[in-house]
Write a structure and sequence with these properties.
alpha/beta, four-stranded antiparallel beta sheet, 577 residues, Rossmann fold, ABC transporter transmembrane region fold, six-stranded mixed beta sheet
Length: 577
C-alpha cells in the first residue's frame, strides 16, 4: 500500500489542507460547550436575555464557520482522493498493457478487472476518509480531555479512566471482527461466483434441467454467508451497549462528582454541563474512529492487492535488443518466418506444450496448420507476434529473432485473427480502422471484399458507420469472423495469421476467402490454423501437430501418403474412397 501513496505527490496541498480544515472544524466544536457554560452561568443565572441572545448568535456563527471548514475539507479530500484514484487506475491499466499473455494468464482476467474497479474504489474511499477523519477523531478525543482539565482537574480524571476503557472495547471488538469481515468477503465472493455462473450459463442449466441443483448450491452458499454475517454482527453489536454502559456510567459519576462540587462552590452548573458534553463528544468520535479504521483496513487490503499487480514484471521488454537496422533486414534473403528447434513451456506447466518445432515459410507462401484439439496449433502461431516467448530455440522473421524487434515494430508486420472473434462497441469503420487508422473508405471496402464481408456492411443501415454493440452482439458468428478478418487485412501485413477464424463460415465462403487472400496485392505469408482439411489442402505446406510435436510436413498429397495422423483427420471428414 505504501508504494501507492506516491500517486498523492501531486496533491500535497490538498492532502495538507483537508485535515487542517477538519481540525479547524473540530476546534470550533470544542468551543461550543464553553459557550453553553457561559449561557448557563451568566445569561440564565443573571436572567440576562440580551447576553443569552448574543451567545446564541456566537454558537450559530461557530456552527456556520464549522460548516464552511467541513465543506472545504471535504472538497480538498475529495479532490485528492479522486485524483489519486485516477492516477492509480491509469498506471495500473498502462502496466497491464505491458503484460504478455503469460502474465495475463497468471493473474486472470477477472482478477485484473476487480483490481481496476472495486479495489481501487475502496482505496480511493479510504484515502478520502483518512484525509477527513483520521486526525479529527483523535483531536476531538484528546482535545475534550484537555478542555476538561481546564475546567476541573478532579472531574477530568474521570475522562482519563473512561477513554482507555472505551478504546479497549472499541478496538478489542475491531480486532476480533476485522478478520471475520474478511471471511465474510470471501463467502460473498463465492456467492457472487455462483450467481455469475448461473447467469452466464442459464441456457446450459435449463438444457440439462439443473435448476434445482443450482438453487440448492446457491442457497448453501447464501446460508454460509448469512451465518458468518450474523456471527460478525453479534460481535459488532456487542460494542454499542458496552460503550454506552461505560459512557453513561462515566456520565453518572461525572454528574455525581459535579453535583458535590457545585454544592461546595468549586464548579458551576454550566461547567458540569460542559463536562457532560465533552464526554458525549468522546463517545461519538471513538465510534467514528472505529468505523474509520475498518474502512482503512479494507482500503489497505485492497491497496496491497492493487500493488501486487503493479509488482508483476512483464516477461517481455517493450523494446527489442537487436542492433541490426531495418534496411539490413530487408536486404537479407532469409525466409519470412523460421522456427528453429522451438520449444514452449507455459509458466507453471509440468512439460512442454511445443517440442522441437523446426520449419520455415517463404514470402508469399501459405502454411496450413492442423492437428487434434490441444495439439498446440494456437500456441505455435502465438509465438510469431510474440504473445509468448519461446523457452527453447528461436523464432525468426526475415532472418531476425523476434526478440530483437520492438513489440510495436513486430506487430505492425503481423495481422492476426484470433479464434474468438471480438468486435468493440462503436461503428464498423472504427473497428476496421484498428488495423490501419489512416485507411481510406476505398481501402476498407477492398479489405471487406477480400474478407467476404462487403455484403455484411451493405446489409446494415449506415454501411461502414453502422453501429456495433459491445462484443458485436448484433452480428452473427460468421459476420463477426469476416469483419475481424477485414480488420487484420486493413493493416496490409507481411504475415497474416488466421487462427481457426473461418469456422463459422460455410465451405463456399471459406473457399472464396482463401482464393481472395492468395490473390492479394503484396502476397503476404499466410498461416491458416484449421480443423478442416478442406481449408488447408491447397496450402504450399501443411504442418501436422500431435501432442505439441510435428507429426508431418508437406503438401496435401504428400501427407496423405506419408502421415498417418493427417490421413486419419482427412478420412474422418471425407468418406474413404
Amino acid at each position: 500500500m505504501k508504494k501507492l501513496l506516491v500517486y498523492l505527490k501531486d496533491y500535497k496541498k490538498e492532502s495538507v489542507l483537508a485535515p487542517l480544515f477538519k481540525m479547524l472544524e473540530a476546534s470550533f466544536e470544542l468551543i461550543v460547550p464553553l459557550v453553553v457554560t457561559a449561557i448557563i452561568d451568566v445569561g440564565i443565572a443573571d436572567r440576562n436575555s440580551g447576553y443569552i441572545l448574543k451567545m446564541c448568535l456566537v454558537m450559530v456563527a461557530l456552527g456556520l464557520i464549522g460548516l464552511v471548514c467541513s465543506v472545504t475539507a471535504q472538497y480538498f479530500a475529495a479532490k485528492a482522493a479522486a485524483g489519486f484514484g485516477t492516477r492509480v487506475r491509469h498506471q495500473l491499466f498502462a502496466h497491464i498493457q505491458t503484460f504478455s499473455f503469460t502474465e495475463i494468464d497468471q493473474a486472470g482476467t477477472s482478477t485484473l478487472i476487480t483490481r481496476m474497479t472495486s479495489d481501487i474504489n475502496q482505496v480511493q474511499s479510504g484515502v478520502n476518509m483518512v484525509l477527513r477523519l483520521f486526525l479529527r477523531s483523535p483531536f476531538i478525543v484528546f482535545g475534550s480531555m484537555i478542555m476538561a482539565f481546564t475546567i476541573d482537574v478532579k472531574a477530568a480524571l474521570i475522562f482519563v479512566v473512561a477513554i482507555p476503557l472505551l478504546s479497549l472495547v472499541v478496538f478489542g471488538v475491531m480486532a476480533v471482527s476485522i478478520p471475520l469481515y474478511r471471511k465474510v468477503q470471501e463467502r460473498l465472493d463465492k456467492v457472487l461466483g455462483i450467481t455469475r455462473e448461473n447467469l452466464t450459463g442459464a441456457r446450459v442449466i435449463r438444457a440439462f434441467h439443473k435448476e434445482e441443483e443450482e438453487k440448492a448450491r446457491f442457497e448453501e452458499g447464501l446460508e454460509s454467508l448469512t451465518s458468518m454475517q450474523n456471527h460478525v454482527g453479534r460481535i459488532s453489536a456487542f460494542m454499542n451497549p458496552v460503550t454506552f454502559v461505560i459512557i453513561n456510567g462515566a456520565t453518572i459519576f461525572l454528574l455525581y462528582t459535579g453535583a458535590v462540587q457545585v454544592d461546595t462552590g468549586v464548579l458551576t452548573q454550566g461547567e458540569v454541563v460542559a463536562l457532560v458534553n465533552y464526554m458525549s463528544q468522546i463517545l461519538v468520535e471513538l465510534i467514528k474512529l472505529a468505523d474509520l479504521i475498518v474502512t482503512i483496513t479494507k482500503a489497505v487490503a485492497c491497496g496491497n492487492r492493487v500493488e501486487s499487480v503493479l509488482e508483476i514484471q512483464s516477461s517481455m521488454p517493450a523494446d527489442g535488443a537487436g542492433k541490426r537496422t531495418g534496411s539490413e533486414r530487408c536486404e537479407t534473403k532469409a525466409p519470412a518466418v523460421q522456427f528453429s528447434h522451438v520449444g514452449l513451456t507455459y509458466r507453471g506447466a509440468g512439460g512442454e506444450s511445443l517440442s522441437d518445432i523446426d520449419f520455415s515459410a517463404e514470402r508469399g507462401e501459405t502454411i496450413g496448420i492442423i492437428g487434434g484439439t490441444g495439439s498446440g496449433k494456437t500456441s505455435l502461431v502465438h509465438l510469431i507476434p510474440r504473445f509468448y516467448d519461446v523457452t527453447r530455440g528461436e523464432v525468426l522473421i526475415n532472418g531476425r529473432n523476434v526478440k530483437e524487434y520492438s513489440l510495436e515494430e513486430l506487430r505492425q508486420k503481423v495481422g492476426i485473427v484470433m479464434q474468438r472473434a471480438v468486435l468493440f462497441k462503436g461503428t464498423i469503420r472504427e473497428n476496421l480502422c484498428w488495423g490501419n487508422r489512416d485507411a481510406s473508405e476505398e481501402e476498407l471496402y477492398q479489405t471487406l471484399e477480400i474478407a467476404q464481408g462487403k455484403e455484411v456492411v451493405e446489409g446494415k443501415e449506415g454501411g461502414l458507420d453502422a453501429f456495433v454493440e459491445q462484443g458485436g452482439k448484433n452480428f452473427s458468428g460468421g459476420q463477426k469472423q469476416r469483419l475481424t478478418i477485414a480488420r487484420a487485412l486493413a493493416r496490409k501485413p507481411e504475415i497474416l495469421i488466421l487462427d481457426d477464424s473461418a469456422s463459422a463460415l460455410d465451405y463456399a465462403t471459406d473457399a472464396r476467402l482463401r482464393r481472395a487472400i492468395r490473390e492479394m496485392e503484396g502476397s503476404p505469408t499466410v498461416f491458416i490454423v484449421s480443423q478442416r482439411t478442406s481449408s488447408i489442402q491447397h496450402a504450399d505446406k501443411i504442418l501436422v501437430l500431435e501432442d505439441g510435436e510435428m507429426a508431418g510436413i508437406g503438401t496435401h498429397q504428400q501427407l496423405l501418403e506419408t502421415c498417418k495422423v493427417y490421413r486419419e483427420i482427412y478420412e474422418s471428414q471425407y468418406k474413404k474412397q
